[in-house]
Design brief:
By secondary structure, this protein is mainly alpha-helical. The protein is 73% helix and 0% strand.
Length: 483
């Protein structure tokens, strides 16, 4: 990896005391794109997973991630770094696994960005077509990548304000549909069934496959740690944002899916999801709020996707920045904007990578929804889950080595249980990866393992660096040493 340095007068520090826990919470939630998931991912989960038992799967995964957050947040006061997975894994397991985790995390978020751009480009292209204007999906996606970079350069405060507007609109529409369904049920048109939370509905043969989609819906909550250097009272703001975001995601999805299943009826919901996955939620919203409201909802799906790419752009740029400060990647990526103190060079690099991948997919003639989206989702989902499991293990090892006064529950029990369960989720995701990719078993497994193999290669690089340049190797972990 490059060793070039930045010029002496180039700033590399991010703007301090810029955002509070609520802004971090918004950044986290928007990476999930709740409206996009309700409009497309959830119906696929119902069809390919455990059917009407899907809300119960969300409750279970939510509890596991809350356990994960207990240990992760207990360790946060001892990590003064915006590298998130890199910092935690390095501190708990050592520099070599930390470098591997950093590689997996960056590749995962970059491929997730590509998946989001494919969806956004598709929906934008369809929207233009409705007005008689033909614009290829990759042109729309490329323009969105440029816009996300420009917003990222303006700084985290600007992004936070924009995301607040987009998030209020997105979540507001989902909650409006939920409220209308509750009112419909309260008027006696049909009783609400609790069957989706019953063990016999949840723990079916489709429970394992359902975890693929449910875990992906929580993806991004750990990015709260990325903003630790820019947060007010980071030791309070980051844990609070993480806990609230996990609980919010779990309650929102479990509750909204439960109401949607009740809307269509337990006997018919799975059939509706299979026959019209892209229109299931919008169909319900149209019945409840009218055709015009449904059109507004379809527009908000696009703003939801843009909010997701903006949030992920901020995440990836800050990852590049944190790694560049340590010399793991090109040091020029550590430069920050003179006025906004944002990682503008890292953001530009993220934009170039995204646009290049979009153009490569277009050149290959890939379908944005049938090929780019599922294929990019595989390494991103597997990679992030692998990093979460490594981070949970790192928490246990860290507190076993360092007596800090943290309770046994926070230092060992909660993170150990979460590590075991996350490894189980990872196994289930890899075993059923064909459901995500739509490819043959061999190609699907190769796609899933590719991101893990990249992490192994990065760890090998770190091990070689320890031998060749001990001084530079030591610099990789000095920022996350025990205080």
């Amino acid at each position: 990896m490059p060793e070039s340095s930045t010029e002496p007068n180039q700033p590399t520090g991010l703007k301090r005391d810029t955002i509070g826990w609520f802004s971090i919470f918004l950044m986290v939630i928007t990476t999930n794109g709740p409206l996009t998931s309700m409009g497309g991912g959830v119906p696929a989960s119902i069809t390919l997973g455990n059917g009407i038992g899907l809300p119960g799967s969300y409750v279970i995964v939510c509890v596991v991630y809350l356990l994960f957050a207990v240990g992760f947040c207990a360790m946060s006061p001892y990590v003064e770094n915006g590298g998130a997975f890199y910092a935690y894994i390095t501190k708990g397991l050592g520099t070599i696994p930390g470098v591997g985790g950093a590689c997996i995390a960056v590749l995962s978020y970059v491929t997730m960005l590509l998946a989001c751009y494919a969806m956004l480009g598709h929906f934008m292209s369809v929207a233009f077509s409705s007005f008689g204007v033909g614009v290829p999906w990759w042109v729309c996606a490329g323009a969105a990548a440029v816009a996300a970079h420009l917003f990222c350069v303006r700084g985290i405060e600007f992004s936070g304000r924009l995301l607040l507007i987009l998030m209020l609109s997105e979540v507001g529409v989902i909650l409006a549909a939920d409220l209308l369904e509750l009112l419909r049920a309260s008027h006696g048109q049909h009783p609400l069934s609790l069957l989706p939370f019953a063990p016999r509905a949840v723990f079916t043969q489709g429970f394992g496959p359902s975890l693929i989609f449910v875990v992906a819906s929580f993806m991004g909550f750990e990015t709260a740690a990325i903003y630790s250097q820019e947060a007010h009272e980071a030791q309070r703001s980051v844990p609070l944002a993480m806990y609230v975001s996990i609980a919010f995601i779990g309650v929102l999805y479990a509750g909204s899916i439960w109401l949607m299943l009740n809307h269509f009826g337990m006997a018919d919901a799975v059939g509706v999801a299979a026959n019209d996955p892209g229109g299931m939620w919008l169909s319900m919203f149209s019945v409840l709020a009218g055709h015009t409201a449904a059109k507004i909802g379809s527009v908000l799906v696009m703003t939801s996707l843009f909010a997701a790419v903006l949030s992920f752009t901020n995440v990836v740029a800050r990852y590049w920045h944190a790694l560049a400060v340590r010399g793991l990647v090109w040091r020029a990526l550590s430069r920050t904007h003179l006025r906004h103190q944002s990682p503008h060079v890292a953001s530009a690099a993220t934009m170039v990578i995204s646009v290049s991948l979009i153009l490569l997919c277009a050149k290959a003639g890939l379908s944005p929804m049938l090929q780019v989206l599922p294929w990019a989702s595989v390494p991103s989902a597997v990679g992030v889950l692998a990093c979460q499991a490594l981070a949970a293990i790192a928490v246990v090892v860290f507190f076993r080595r360092n007596r800090t006064g943290v309770s046994l529950w926070r230092a060992l029990v909660a993170p150990a249980f979460s590590a075991i369960l996350l490894l189980f989720f990872l196994w289930e995701m890899i075993v059923h990866v064909e459901l995500l990719s739509g490819l043959s078993a061999g190609l699907s497994y190769a796609m899933a393992v590719s991101v893990l193999l990249a992490g192994v290669l990065a760890s090998s690089y770190a091990a070689d660096l320890r031998r060749r340049s001990p001084k530079r190797y030591a610099q990789l972990s000095d920022l996350v040493s025990l205080r």
